[in-house]
Write a structure and sequence with these properties.
By secondary structure, this protein is of the alpha/beta class. The protein is built from eight helices and eleven strands. A five-stranded parallel β-sheet has the order 4-7-10-3-11.
C-alpha cells in the first residue's frame, strides 16, 4: 500500500514547474504536513530540513514564530534614501523549496508587519505572486516557490494538499545514503522534472467518464477541485515513475492515494472539520 506522507512528500519534491493561465496557476502543489505535536516538531522539522538540503538544489527554512513574523521583512521594499531595493526573505529564485514551521507559532498578537507577512506567504502559496513594496504602491511579481508547511492542526495558510502525519514510536533509524546513492537521487529528481508529460486522448476519455461516475456515487464529496487534484497527483506520480504518458494504472493509484489521504484527514479530530 502506498505511504500517504512519503508519496505526497515525494511528489512535492519533484514538482518545480508551473503554468500560468490569466490569474490561475496550474500545477502548483503546496503541501501541509499537519498533526505534528510540538514535542516532536523541532526534531521532525530538523530532519526534513536536513533531507531537503541534501537532495534539492535550493532550499530555505523559515520559522513562523511571532517574533519572526512581527520583525522580519518577507517582501522586498524600495529604500528611496539609499536608492536600492531591500531584499525580502521570500525573494527567492525559481524552484526553491521553502519549509515553513507553523508549529513555532505561539499565542500572541500579530502586529501590522506580522499580518502583512502572513498575507505575503499566502499569496506565494496560493497565487505564486510576491508583492514588492515601492512605498506608494505595491507591484506583484510572479514566483516559483515550492511550499511545505508543518503544523499542529490544519495550517492557517492556504495550501493545496493537507496530509496528517502519523507519529510512530520506536521506528528504526533510516540508513544513511552513500554519496553515490545521493548523486543518483539528485540525478533522478533532475531527470523527472524534464520529462515532457502528456495525456493521451483515450486516457483523457477514461478520466472524464470515471469522474462522472465518481460524481454520481458521491455528489457531495466529489467536485471540480477533486478532479483537478487527482489530475495533478496523477501527473506527479507518472513523472515520479519516469513515464511521459499517463496511464490508467497510475490514475487508479492516484485515486487510492487520495482516498487514503481523505480518510486520514477525516479520522483526525484536529483536522476533520477542515478537510481539503
Amino acid at each position: 500500500m502506498l505511504s500517504v506522507c512519503l508519496s505526497a512528500f515525494g511528489v512535492r519534491v519533484i514538482m518545480f514547474r508551473y503554468a500560468r493561465h490569466d490569474t490561475s496557476v496550474i500545477g502548483k502543489f503546496s503541501l501541509n504536513l499537519s498533526n505534528v505535536p510540538r514535542d516532536v516538531s523541532t526534531q521532525l522539522v530538523g530532519q526534513l530540513s536536513t533531507a531537503l538540503q541534501t537532495i534539492v538544489p535550493k532550499f530555505y527554512s523559515m520559522p513562523m514564530s511571532l517574533e519572526h513574523l512581527n520583525n522580519k521583512s518577507l517582501c522586498p521594499k524600495k529604500d528611496y534614501a539609499a536608492n536600492r531595493l531591500v531584499t525580502g526573505q521570500l525573494q527567492l529564485s525559481d524552484g526553491t523549496v521553502v519549509l515553513l514551521d507553523e508549529t513555532a507559532l505561539s499565542e500572541g498578537q500579530l502586529n501590522e508587519r506580522g499580518i502583512a507577512n502572513i498575507m505575503a506567504i499566502n499569496s506565494v502559496l496560493s497565487r505564486q505572486h510576491l508583492a514588492y513594496d515601492f512605498q506608494y504602491q505595491t507591484v506583484d511579481f510572479p514566483t516559483n516557490i515550492n511550499g511545505i508547511v508543518v503544523s499542529e492542526g490544519k495550517s492557517i495558510l492556504q495550501t493545496d494538499c493537507q496530509v496528517p502525519v502519523e507519529i510512530q514510536a520506536d521506528v528504526p533509524a533510516a540508513n544513511v545514503l552513500t554519496a553515490t546513492q545521493l548523486n543518483m537521487l539528485r540525478s533522478y529528481l533532475t531527470a523527472v522534472q524534464r520529462i515532457d508529460y502528456d495525456l493521451p486522448a483515450d486516457v483523457q476519455k477514461h478520466l472524464q467518464d470515471d469522474f462522472v461516475a465518481m460524481r454520481k456515487d458521491n455528489p457531495e464529496g466529489v467536485n471540480a477541485e477533486t478532479f483537478h487534484r487527482l489530475l495533478l497527483l496523477s501527473r506527479l506520480l507518472s513523472l515520479s515513475r519516469g513515464q511521459r504518458l499517463l496511464d490508467v494504472t497510475t490514475w487508479n493509484d492516484a485515486k487510492k492515494l487520495e482516498t487514503l489521504r481523505c480518510a486520514r484527514v477525516a479520522s483526525n479530530p484536529a483536522t476533520a472539520a477542515a478537510t481539503q
